[in-house]
Amino acid sequence: MHENTVREAFPELDAIADDDLRTGVVDAWATAMTDNGVEDLAGVPWLPPVQRDLALDDESLVDHVREVTACALALAETLLDHRQVDISLDTVLAGALVHDVSKLAEFDGMDATAVYDLLGHPYYGVHLVARAGLPVELAHVALSHTHRTTVEPATLEATIVAHADAVAAAAIRSRATDDLRTV
Ligand SMILES: [Fe+2]
Question: Count of alpha carbons within 13 Å of 152, Cβ hemisphere only?
Fold first, then answer.
């Protein structure tokens, strides 16, 4: 029932060529909304503990995911333009769009849940991605995009999403500091 909300939140879904992949990404978000009683997807915060520390209460998860997806696509297209390299744009797009889906389970408003404390979003992200029937390559993107695991990106697509996430998160943190080493 949340599928339309997800499609409206993430217009980048239309750029995914493979129908099953696009449907799986929508399903992962819609299921996470249902399971966690999320009605207002646009109102879900980006990362409550950091936002609280930096007094950045207006950052949203949807905006962040869209920024990561745009950054990742730009990186992938730039590499494809400049060298003979094998990159699946579908995997980059779908991976960027699902990399933080588990945050719907990790926070209840601004409060951390047991999923955040005991699992964290890389691990619960794998669960949600696999449950939506998405391929293991996308579970790997979710698992390896953050230093909260010891699993490094093994593919170019996962590397691209991890770096896109890092710069998009840095752009948020830069609002609170002139020196990103300090936050
Ligand atoms: Fe992220």
Answer: 1
Distance from Cα 65 to the centre of ligand 1, integer Å = 6
Ligand 1 center to 81 CA (angstroms): 26
Q: Which residues contact 151 (CB under 8 A, 6 or more apart)?
A: 122, 140, 143, 144
Rounded Cα–Cα distance for residues 177 and 183 (Å): 7
Residue 35 reports pLDDT greater than 90 = yes
Name the residue type at position 18: D
Query: What CATH number is attached to the domain comprising 120?
Result: 1.10.3210.10
CB half-sphere exposure, 40, CA atoms < 13 A: 6
For the full predicted model, state whether its pTM sits above 0.90: yes
Those residues with Cβ within 8 angstroms of residue 78's Cβ, 6 or more apart along the chain or in another chain: none
Over the stretch 118-149, which tens digit does the pLDDT of each residue have?
987 789 999 999 999 999 999 999 999 998 88
Total number of domains constituting the chain: 1
Residue 7: give the domain boundaries.
3-182
Between CA 179 and CA 182, with CA 180 as vertex, the angle to 5 degrees is 80
- Ligand 1 centroid to Cα of residue 159, in Å, is 13
Position 169, amino acid: A
